[in-house]
Amino acid sequence: MRILGALLAAILLTAVPVVPASAAPPVTADPDPVAHDPTLIRQGRWYYEIITGDSGTRTYLPIRRSTDLIHWTYTGTVFDTPPAWVVEELGVTPADFWAPDINFFDGEYHLYYAASSFGTNNSVIGLATTKSLDKPQWVDRGLVLRTTAGVEDVNAIDPDVSFDRAGNAYLSYGSFWDGLRMRRLDVRSGLLSATDTTEYRIASRGGMAIEGPSITHHGGWYYLFVSFDFCCRGVDSDYRVMVGRSRNITGPYVDATGRALTEGGGTQILAGYHDFAGPGHGDVYGDLFAHHYYDRADDGAPKGSIRKISWVDGWPRLSDPLSGNRGYGHGDAYVQLVHRDSDAVLANPSCGYEGADITLAAAGTTDTCLQWQLIDRGNGLVSLTNRHSNKVAEVAACINAEGARVAQWGWLANDCQRFRLTPSSEGWSRIVNPLAGRALQPAACGGAGAAVQTHTLGTCQDFRIQPVGDVLLTDVANTTRIGNRWRFTHVDDGWYRVTDSLTRRSLGGTYWRIEALTTGGYRLVGMNGRTREVLLLTP
């Protein structure tokens, strides 16, 4: 397994240089504090947040508090040194403890935390309690759960405690391997139930990256929040927050399309944008969602963030953060890349993940496997990030040859995964990879179902950029928002009618084509010769 849940801050700070934020004007409130894997609770007028410690500093579960969720004061750590039983169980002394989760029940604050032998599922979940967080006196309650490398197919990290409507407590946990599990707890002891020993399987991606469960109840449903993909890579982290729901706390959980979370399902509610790279590992506390991200404006340092939860049509929606960068929109707009000769679109046809081939497919405007974000990677280059998989198109294995296949993989910040959109004519563009200047085209110039390859020369390499749904427009020059939300309706060749979704007025009274700029963003070129340089953003 490549990376476990709460990786070490020292590792992520060795990441690659900062990529430009592809988004919008920074509207910065107070700066966010350093954090990994925050858990949140309130006592009196104070909110308390406990986080994963920083590697090498021997800070075992730092604590801070705030009255407004913006200004935080450090108050100490849960442990000065690891309890002896942790070292004995693991056979090593952990550099820190991971992914705490705090709850108040049975008259005490119960803090669950993870410790692990790095890179394995030789892991333990422990428990500490205190009567108060104001002047805490932490009591080590010992081992709750452990997994052993080579024995279990689950990992005992990322604990989260939740309660059903009858007051029964459950412990969710897990990372990578076969996903997330759940066990019943004894409320009096805080340890595993001796009467209900069922291990419930609540989410899995078949060994792919999933971790950080948090469960809440709303409107007759239990909602399971999880994190997909990779934390701890600084600005290249692609962590994102997904959710599913169930009528029962033990599952089965399904996403908004009905796909089971045990089969890789999950509805995305937060992904990276602006200065927020890799947001994830959230903790739901009432109507608040605490999570961490990697700050593009601060060399990828891990930061904590708080957002409010609202509910729309039975599903959670996260607000803008209470602090940090709050620029316009929420990242690059989703688009379809429509092939000129066939009207088919660039696709992740099987809705696969790493290694899945890219092909053309028949257009379908609601299918997220056919939608992409063109994320600015600097110098006029973009990555093609699939909305479903969160993986990027790449020249597979960096094969520098005519006819090389194109597949998808996690972002590795290399030229195999970068592309430049170069205008050809009438709003059409070639999607050119820096490897010898080869462009994407379907095999044998075919249509839907044809494999996508790279070729230096070709007669079928034109695509147009079709924004999906409503988008925001901001002016590149002065970073001001233009109008409300805009809808791009294809009219002919590479031309669009651009209309305000609220007022129905047409932008500039003309049709527009879309050209990508070498400096980032796009140029809208009107049939009347007028031009506007803009960013296309998600609302």
Structure description:
It is a single chain. With 539 residues, this protein is mainly beta. It has helices spanning 9-12, 84-90, and strands spanning 39-43, 46-50, 60-66, 73-79, 98-105, 108-116, 123-130, 139-147, 160-163, 169-173, 180-185, 200-203, 210-218, 221-228, 240-246, 267-270, 276-285, 288-295, 301-312, 315-318, 334-339, 345-347, 359-361, 372-376, 382-386, 392-395, 404-409, 420-423, 429-432, 439-442, 452-455, 463-467, 470-475, 481-492, 495-500, 512-516, 522-526, 531-537. Strands 35-34-33-38-37-36 form a six-stranded antiparallel β-sheet, with no helix packed on it. Strand 10 and strand 11 form a beta hairpin. It is elongated and about 70 Å long.
Short description:
InterPro entries: GH43_arabinanases, Glyco_hydro_43, Glyco_hydro_beta-prop_sf, Ricin_B-like_lectins, Ricin_B_lectin. This protein is 2% helix and 43% strand. The protein has two helices and 38 strands.
Keywords:
539 residues; mainly beta; Tachylectin-2, Chain A; Trefoil (Acidic Fibroblast Growth Factor, subunit A); 3 domains; 6-stranded antiparallel sheet; 2% helix; elongated; disordered N terminus
What is the count of distinct domains?
3
CATH topology grouping of the largest domain: Tachylectin-2, Chain A
Count of individual beta strands:
38
> What's the CATH first level of the largest domain?
Mainly Beta
Spatial extent as radius of gyration: 24 Å
Cα distance spanning the termini: 35 Å
CATH architecture of the largest domain: 5 Propeller
Mean pLDDT: 91
Helical percentage: under 10%
Q: Count up the helices.
A: 2
Q: What can be said about the biggest beta sheet?
A: 6 strands, antiparallel
Task: Write the CATH homologous superfamily of the largest domain.
Answer: Glycosyl hydrolase domain, family 43
Strand order of the biggest β-sheet? 35-34-33-38-37-36
Instruction: Briefly note the structural class of the backbone.
Output: mainly beta
Can you tell me the residue ranges where pLDDT is under 50 for at least 5 consecutive residues?
Answer: 1-28
Could you tell me the strand content as a percent range?
35-45%
The shape, in one word, is elongated
